[in-house]
Write a structure and sequence with these properties.
about 425 residues, mainly alpha, two-stranded antiparallel sheet, about 65% helix, about 0% strand, transmembrane
Length: about 425
């Protein structure tokens, strides 16, 4: 009457997805080891065997701490697979509410680290609630969408869904963690799958393009271009002039307002380090030894690997710490330098295969909740993967988000593990949803 656990048959688990997860986590640990490895100096005393080091001495190594996180992730996986699968649906709003309270608490009690109040410290352990907020928001949004029909274009329901998504975003932005907040935009892809109007995605994409053009092109030229486009549209379609003149002029005014509002947003809303990242994206060679150092060294590391790489523990950019944050945000540099183009292709192939598999798992769910959650997982992983590789290659601003399953860090590994294996837990019991 009160089921709390449900042991799953091993045959009901999607083992291909599990194998892809293990491959990425294992290769990630190898990359973390390489990125944090430091060769001893020629005149340094002999290093003791690892078995002779104390636990506290081993904790000085990122690769060892990552091993511990991997071990605890295994425990998490077991818990996620044995907990009654109905609990994820039933407790979705409870978990979401608890995470909102934790995000509020983080703003006030977290110690500033690199200008951000986003880490809670529990003794030697640091956790980033923003990482886990993606999971709870995905659950809550999936629970809400299971009870509505977005295809009916009910604006009240869409407003509630927007509120569920934007509330954690606002709290994460308040803690000065812009990169993590941007990831929540990935949920739009899942909402689109469930019937959200493509017009919303189109408007957001158009707004992003206009803002980018306003940074790259003189504003007078943009005003002239948009005015000519509007006049051309009036000339080609007389109905637009007769029936939609107020709407057309409103759109034109909104676009012009965005063009001239970019300066205010750029200079008065964005923080200095955020402005620097955008400036470096627009002109990477502006300050290669200062603001653009990270991206410059990252591209050097990636390019220097050639086809097959320099070999394990032989990357010079890695060994001499030319790339900052190489164990976390720029971990892919290690792949490019030591494993070469072939190694990068293998890693990218594993990610694309995992994303493809998650979409297949999502589509075969028997409930709207399970399908929507599956698409949320795929969308979050896709955005993390795309943005991380993009900033490593200098194609996107450096926003400080990790590469899933690869980057060093317990919060990152735990959050992505929870995201993925909750989906696998739901998938293992998808046939039972028909009986509910």
């Amino acid at each position: 009457m009160y089921p709390t656990v449900a042991i799953r048959s091993s045959r009901s688990i999607d083992w291909l997805t599990v194998l892809l997860y293990l491959a990425l986590v294992g290769l990630g640990w190898v990359a973390v080891y390489a990125a944090s490895y430091a060769p001893p100096a020629p005149d340094a005393p002999a290093v003791h065997a690892l078995r002779d080091l104390s636990f506290s001495e081993l904790m000085a190594f990122n690769w060892f701490k990552q091993l511990l996180w991997m071990g605890t992730a295994v425990v998490l996986i077991v818990v996620l697979l044995v907990v009654d699968y109905k609990a994820y649906d039933t407790l979705a709003y409870v978990l979401y509410g608890g995470m909102i309270l934790l995000l509020v608490l983080t703003i006030f009690i977290a110690r500033p680290i690199a200008g951000s109040r986003s880490w809670l410290e529990l003794g030697p352990v640091r956790l980033q609630p923003a990482e886990f907020a993606k999971f709870t928001t995905a659950l809550a949004a999936s629970r809400f969408m299971a009870g509505i029909n977005l295809r009916q274009q009910n604006w009240r329901d869409q407003a509630v869904l927007a509120g569920l998504t934007l509330l954690p975003v606002a709290l994460i932005l308040a803690s000065n963690e812009t990169g993590q907040a941007l990831v929540f935009a990935a949920l739009l892809l899942a909402f689109f799958r469930e019937g959200m109007s493509p017009l919303i995605l189109l408007l957001l994409a158009a707004g992003g393009v206009i803002l980018l053009l306003a940074l790259l092109v003189p504003k007078l030229w943009l005003v002239i271009a948009f005015t000519v486009l509007l006049l051309a549209a009036f000339g080609l379609n007389s109905r637009l002039w007769r029936h939609h003149l107020p709407l057309s002029l409103s759109v034109w005014a909104a676009v012009i307002g965005m063009v001239f509002g970019v300066d205010f947003f750029f200079n008065h809303v964005l923080q200095p380090h955020q402005r620097q990242r955008i400036e470096m994206l627009i002109d990477p060679g502006k300050d290669p030894l200062g603001k653009g150092w990270n991206v410059t060294q990252s591209k050097i590391a990636l390019g220097s690997g050639g086809w097959l790489g320099k070999g394990f523990l032989k990357g010079t950019q890695t060994k001499f710490d030319f790339v900052p944050e190489q164990s976390t945000d720029f971990i892919f540099c290690t792949v490019g330098e030591e494993w070469g183009w072939v190694g990068c292709l293998v890693v990218i192939g594993l990610y694309l295969t995992l994303l493809w598999r998650i979409l297949l798992v999502a589509e075969r769910q028997k409930s709207v909740f399970g399908r929507t959650y599956g698409y949320c997982v795929a969308s979050i992983l896709f955005v993390h993967f795309t943005v991380n590789l993009g900033m490593t290659m200098g194609l996107m601003p450096v926003v400080g988000i990790p590469l899933p399953f690869f980057s060093y860090g317990g919060s990152s590994l735990w959050s992505f593990t929870i995201l993925l294996f909750t989906l696998l837990a739901l998938d293992a019991h998808r046939k039972q949803d028909l009986l509910r």
